[in-house]
Amino acid sequence: MVVLASTPAVDHIPLLRSPDPGDYFSGMPVVDLSSPGAPRAIADACERFGFFKLVNHGVPADTMDRLESEAVRFFSLPQADKDRSGPAYPFGYGSKRIGLNGDMGWLEYLLLAVDSASLSGACAVPSCALLAALNEYIAAVRKVAVRVMEAMAEGLGIAAVDALSGMVTAEGSDQVFRVNHYPPCHALQGLGCSATGFGEHTDPQLISVLRSNGTSGLQIALQNGQWVSVPSDRDAFFVNVGDSLQVLTNGRFKSVKHRVVANSLKSRVSMIYFGGPAMTQRIAPLPQLLGAGEQSLYKDFTWGEYKKAAYNSRLGDNRLAQFHR
């Protein structure tokens, strides 16, 4: 999509052509986590797209709705009250600025560290109700992530069911939770363009599990470079393959490039669990996935080394490029 001229209302934020009905992804892979065929379906989706929609995941609607409601309540507070939970360096409340390297988006967010299956005690959450909703949701979605990663291992033909999931359940695993709010960008209504909510990027971790309200905006890049819009479904999760998982599978699973286009009329709220390994975890292709004589496509690195490189980059950078052999 072509970046258009800016307007004062969205100064410094790139503008994109507004999505139209023809942009929607008609080939979306949908996986029923309760189905016996889920492992093969997950592996196939990760190989073809690095992305899929997950249904029958077992997380109660009340758990999802409670967090969404509390998040909306927080983001509706006066700006001065929200600012007391920031700035995000990297954790806490942030607005428009994404990271420390100049990336901008039409959003505000809470970025939080996860310790085991709940928020780290170091996270300053502005209300007890929000904290309770976050911890209930995080415990539930983490279980989903573990089940998905166990299914990935089975779909890849790996005998050890925890070959992947064990990296996010191990002590010291680096897990992060993010709540994003994309306010409606009324200034661009009817102009044929939309503000970039979150610029194009891949996720550096192993896996990302996203849930949003009923407002669309998420887009993924297909392997031919075409951007397609993901139809919203507030009852489902959307799972992304991250850079580290691409390396662990020696490129068999694809880390998906994605972005969010802000809506001019409706707000979008999304909640994302990012499952990462311990900082000292070596990230290299699993031996079980290397055929006879097959070499790694990547130089060895630890998660700590890759995370540092990712945080020092811009969103749209090819973060894995420097680790290719």
UniProtKB/TrEMBL annotation:
Residues 172-277 form the Fe2OG dioxygenase domain. Transmembrane segments: none annotated. One of its GO terms (molecular function) is metal ion binding. Its cofactor is Fe cation; L-ascorbate. InterPro entries: DIOX_N, IPNS-like_FE2OG_OXY, IPNS-like_sf, Iron_ascorbate_oxido_reductase, Oxoglu/Fe-dep_dioxygenase_dom. SUPFAM superfamilies: Clavaminate synthase-like (SSF51197). It holds the Pfam family DIOX_N. Its EC number is 1.14.11.13. Keywords: Dioxygenase, Iron, Metal-binding, Oxidoreductase. The keyword Oxidoreductase applies. Signal peptide: none annotated. It catalyses: gibberellin A1 + 2-oxoglutarate + O2 = gibberellin A8 + succinate + CO2. Belongs to the iron/ascorbate-dependent oxidoreductase family. GA2OX subfamily. PANTHER family: 2-OXOGLUTARATE (2OG) AND FE(II)-DEPENDENT OXYGENASE SUPERFAMILY PROTEIN-RELATED. This is gibberellin 2beta-dioxygenase. It comes from Aegilops tauschii subsp. strangulata.
